[in-house]
Amino acid sequence: MSIAMRAVALLLRVTAKPGSSTAARAQKRMRKPKRSGQPPAALRRRHDMSVRQVAGFACWTVQPRDEAATRGAVYLHGGAYTSEITKQHWALVGALADEGVRVEVPLYGLAPQHTYREAYPLVSEVYRQLLEQLPAAAVTLAGDSAGAGLALGVAQELPAAGLPQPRRIVLISPWLDLTLGQPAVQAVAPHDPWLSPAGLVEMGHAWAGGDDPSDARLSPINGPLTGLAPIAVFIGTRDIFYPDVCRLRDRAAAEGAPLDVTVCAGAVHVYPLTPTPEGRAAATRIVKDIAQ
């Protein structure tokens, strides 16, 4: 583990972990006003960007300037289904556009004002519209944390929507089980400098909007894996989602589903988005895999 990763972990433990340490603190976090999620000005200067309304929500298109994109991606940001897209998410989107990828970034509605019931038709429609521009064999469905869980859930629902699988699915630290009910999660929790089960479960209930949180659309680890596009997962060992990624890996192996898991020892949640050697190496690989 690099010195930079240790420093990031320490900073997160002091500044971020308290926000999800209890259900009451999670409720307080959810009550805070939502920000706009506007992309950084530097990104707008570098790329062609436009925004449109899809199913009542904003969707940004980021694409290389003066270059026809031959690859596409739908990127779903994390934030425990309650927080807005951040500059770290936009940085990865920008890196993809730098490599010639057209990226669709739907800003799905956040809990507690919105639930998964609005997100699924939004993301499915954004994906369908992208397929009007590029073949499915050139498109990646990707996301981080909560967004990665949503990405996998949407992929599982594509057959019912009459849509083909994408070329690949890329999941960064996916939230696969809204309940976080496995004993292994509790064992990892003290070592995660950022996330706590108590607060996340509370936010997950808000996202579920009264529905069963174990439903596959909320906890895609309970959904089908066979018939999906090849899946690539990136996860650190100091991440409370790590045990559920191991469960997903075991399920995929038993069912013969194509899934590749990259485990980074000592890395924190969504480590490819961190300013660390491990994070930069993972982000470079993700961008290359999506753009190639």
Describe, in plain words, how this protein is organized in 3D.
The structure is a single chain. The protein has 292 residues and is α/β, with parallel strands linked by helices. The chain has a single domain, classed as Alpha/Beta hydrolase fold, catalytic domain (Rossmann fold, 3-Layer(aba) Sandwich). 40% of the residues lie in helices and 17% in strands. It is built from ten helices and eight strands. It has an eight-stranded mixed beta sheet with strand order 1-2-4-3-5-6-7-8, with helices on both faces. α2 crosses α8. It is globular. The mean pLDDT is 96.
Offer a concise description of the structure.
With 292 residues, the protein is of the alpha/beta class.
Low-confidence stretches: none
Count of individual beta strands: 8
> What characteristic shape results from the CA principal axes?
globular
CATH class, named Alpha Beta
The CATH topology assignment is: Rossmann fold
Overall pLDDT score? 96
CATH superfamily: Alpha/Beta hydrolase fold, catalytic domain
If you compute it from the alpha carbons, what radius of gyration comes out, rounded to the nearest whole angstrom?
A: 18 Å
What is the tally of helical segments?
Answer: 10
Task: Strand order, main sheet: write it out.
Answer: 1-2-4-3-5-6-7-8
Largest sheet: 8 strands, mixed
Number of domains: 1
**SS content category:** alpha/beta
Distance between the termini: 29 Å
How large a portion of the residues is in β-strands, by DSSP E?
A: 15-25%
- At CATH's second level, what is the architecture? 3-Layer(aba) Sandwich
